[in-house]
Amino acid sequence: MARPYLSLKDPYTDFSREFEHQLKSSGATLQLAREGATATVDVTKDLVEQRTLAVSAKNIPTEYELTYTVTFSVRGAGKELLAPQTISLSKDFSFDETLQLAKEREADILRQQMARDLVSIAMRRLTSLK
Fold this sequence. Notes:
It is built from two helices and four strands; from the N terminus they run E-H-E-E-E-H. It is about 30% helix and about 40% strand.
């Protein structure tokens, strides 16, 4: 894992950016091509879903559940080093239409926190490969 190639569906998601940052912080030198890499980390799913949990008497949402799901695997030297791993986190948050901007910002912060937590879980699983 010293010189991994990171294969991402979307390099601009919260998880992708944090994962790349954490790999670099841990001393890995990210490769631009698979050829020079010691391992390939494939992130095949990076999905945030929002589901309504509760509505008011006027049928206005008052509570949501935010779920962040990531699936990744690791291959190196022509063999599978880590089978596909799916990790997911969920958080509930209340919603008030009179505070819409603040609540949207709260959802953004929750999504970023969940991405950091998912990266921590993924990094722990990657360190078990040593």
